[in-house]
Amino acid sequence: MRDQTQTIHHPAQRNSPPIIEVDRVNLWYGDTHALKDVSFDLHPQEILAFIGPSGCGKSTALKCLNRMHDDTRGVRITGTIRMDGADIQGADIDPPLHRRKFGWVAQKPNPFPTTVFENVAYAARLHGLTASKADLAAHVEDCLRRAMLWDEVKDDLHGIAGTDLSGGQQQRLCIARALGTKPDVLLMDEPTGSIDPIATARIEELLLTLRQDHSVVIVTHSMMQARRIADRVAYFHLGALVEIGPTELMFESPRDRRVADFIAGKFG
Ligand SMILES: Nc1ncnc2c1ncn2[C@@H]1O[C@H](COP(=O)(O)OP(=O)(O)OP(=O)(O)O)[C@@H](O)[C@H]1O
């Protein structure tokens, strides 16, 4: 259970301007109306959790933020998403540059079949984010430290393959890799959905630390997880964002009956 101090000092309650504003977004996959008039904002240094029954649009909403739907055939989107005040669909936005502001972490750890060092160095090298070999090494170390993996891999960075690590370590490696582009926002689609409880606890601890420098949007099926780590929770139902609010409020006194029933485990 989070302490009072954390709740009181939550940044979204301090009127910090949002980094992302989503305004009446609708999305169709062909004839499937997957998002219906979805609006929410995301603040710096907050963890926002998306919860709701299967197929209600959580992953779809997550992918809108970094324009991951750009290459999916048959997708149509209306509404506006602004990041730092600029329309992310605007003519002046370079999609690859926009995407680089986000780190993506999937449910199943998916390290590259190469060394731990190369997994993390890849993006920085690709985008020329570091000036020298020493810079790159320092950047890789920083990402691995921030992903709480450094101590476990530092002795064999160039030997051990990412795919040889344990499941929990692989997921922390994927988080380190996601930090590689120096993103503002981390998007996580059930990041602990396929790892054990101890590894999950480490990742939750890690997310609470990363929140100091990043906004995090996490899709989770675990109500306990949302309660433990999220500053705010958004509840989706059949493509609509039904209710969003501070975590304690959402769990203790939701306004919408569907949220109360879902949290109580009556469906889902
Ligand atoms: N690429 C796609 N093409 C067609 N329909 C899709 C596609 N991706 C998702 N959908 C449909 O859009 C709706 C929302 O799916 P989405 O994956 O966003 O839900 P979700 O809440 O994340 O579900 P889950 O909790 O099961 O992961 C569902 O009806 C799904 O079948």
TrEMBL record:
Occurrences of domain ABC transporter (ranges): 20-263
Keywords carried by this UniProt record: ATP-binding, Nucleotide-binding, Phosphate transport, Transport
Recorded superkingdom: Bacteria
SMART domains noted in UniProt: AAA
InterPro entries according to UniProt: AAA+_ATPase, ABC_transporter-like_ATP-bd, ABC_transporter-like_CS, P-loop_NTPase, PstB-like
GO molecular-function terms, A-Z: ATP binding
Name this polypeptide is given: Phosphate import ATP-binding protein PstB
Species name: Marivita lacus
